[in-house]
Amino acid sequence: MSLPLRLPLLSVCLALGAAPALADEVVVFAAASMKNALDAVAQDFQAATGHQVTISYAGSGALAKQIIQGAPADIFLSAAENWMDQVESEGLIQPGTRRDLFGNALVLVGHGAGLPQAQITPDTDLAAMLNGGKLAMALVDAVPAGQYGKAALQGLGLWDSVEASVAQADNVRAALALVSLGEAPLGIVYATDAAADPGVSIVGVFPAASHPPITYPGALLTGATDEADRAFFEALSSAGGNARFAAEGFVILN
After folding, report:
1. Is residue 12 part of a domain?
2. What is the pTM of this model?
3. How far is Cα of residue 16 from the mean position of the Cα atoms in its chain?
4. Rounded Cα distance, 147 and 120, in Å
5. How many angstroms separate the CA atoms of 182 and 240, rounded?
6. Which residues make beta-bridge pairs with 202?
7. Number of domains present in the structure of the chain
């Protein structure tokens, strides 16, 4: 009587032993300007590991506030140090995991392809270039691209002449879309954003000295509890991850 009972039990044990490990989900909160490169890294990681990567893109300030308010996330990738500083000050970053990953440049873009490019200096008549239109920017007090843009314009002495013409968008990709769709003749975005949209041309590059360095810090959050989270974070600064970001025009800092 014992043999028929043991055979099903053995079959169940073998089946359990042969079952693959369950895939984990990695939840990433990331600056909108990282989308093209980060999507590619996530696809590579998912194909190699079977783990799922879920990415929420928005302005870094909005993401930082959501994390501080308790939104569940494993990794935070910011487009500026100050928003990462706020999350860290709340004790929400795993010690020793914060690192500067990438850099970028700030550019003035115009609607359409093949526009002439010129130097941006204190003598640039940006108001005249707008010709009564709007200057698209990300939120100048909350989104890094907008904050960098405002700082650059102030540093060059151009802010007062265009402040009333600024059309603020929720994030840098939304500002880019305003120019790409022709709703604003000019906009201030990152060089990587301009390269990703054939509907715009770079009109000029803002001098690096006119604004704080554009740095993308990343960190594991205290909610990151499994190896998949750490593995994906490490993949960002791997040779393959760096290649994906370099291909989009980012400066590699890690």
Report:
1. no
2. 0.85
3. 41
4. 18
5. 36
6. 109
7. 2
